[in-house]
Amino acid sequence: MSISTTAEQGxxxxxxxxxxxxxxxxxxxxxxxxxxxxxxLFCAHHGRKYEEKLRSVATSxxxxxxxxxx
Length: 70
Fold this sequence. Notes:
By secondary structure, the chain is α+β, with helices and mostly antiparallel strands.
């Protein structure tokens, strides 16, 4: 699960907000990948489209697409 929990408070925190936009199409971002020190943001569609290629070079992969099911 990609959502971090603050142990002391027991509060769920989402890192990405509605203001974060996909670098490919401008839709709301649910995936953040760090590549070469830069953060790339993607909507669920483009995140899945590029995931295979990006995972091999990304230093981090943050996925909040589970929020779409709620």
